[in-house]
Amino acid sequence: MKKLKCTGIKRVEDITSQCKYEDENWKDGIEWLLVPCCQEKGAAKLKAKLLKFKKEFPDKSESEILKALCRCCNELKPNERTYEKFNKCVREKLNP
Questions:
Q1: 50/29 Cα distance (integer angstroms)
Q2: Could you tell me the sign of the dihedral formed by the alpha carbons of 60, 7, 74, 19, in that order?
Q3: Which of 7, 16, 17, 40 is the most exposed place for a label (fewest CB within 10 A)?
Q4: What are phi and psi of 82, to 5 degrees?
Q5: Distance (Å, rounded) from C-alpha 2 to C-alpha 42?
Q6: How is the chain split into domains, by residue range?
Q7: Are 50 and 65 in contact, with CB atoms under 8 Å apart?
């Protein structure tokens, strides 16, 4: 996956529109356990993460949270991007 541009992000679609989500890469049936950063149709997973971290970090702006989500999409390989690892990464970005 190419590196996503994480500056100037104002909404989830600014992340998802930079790449393409391809189910055919998931041969072992674990895709539902992973966070897809490029899922365009509804972008439900990243939108849910945004809402989760807005509640967890009410002092952070939406753009700060989106930037953290984007940076974690870049840092974690797609097939290793479990909810646990992704959440930990975002928390580290928002609470250094």
A1: 25
A2: positive
A3: 7
A4: -70, 165
A5: 21
A6: 13-21+30-94
A7: yes
Tell me the residue type at 9: I
Token reading at 83: 């909810």
**Given pLDDT bands bounded at 50, 70 and 90, which one contains residue 2?**
confident
Contact 74, 90 (CB under 8 A): no
Other C-beta atoms within 10 Å of 51: how many? Answer: 11
**What's residue 17's pLDDT?**
87
**Do residues 15 and 70 touch, judged by C-beta distance below 8 A?**
yes
Question: Which stretches within 2-95 are classed as H helix?
Answer: 13-16, 44-56, 62-75, 83-94
**Residues 12-40, mean pLDDT to the nearest whole number:** 70
> Which 8-state DSSP code applies to residue 3?
P
Return the amino acid letter for 89: C
Question: Is residue 84 predicted with pLDDT exceeding 90?
Answer: yes
Contact 33, 15 (CB under 8 A): no
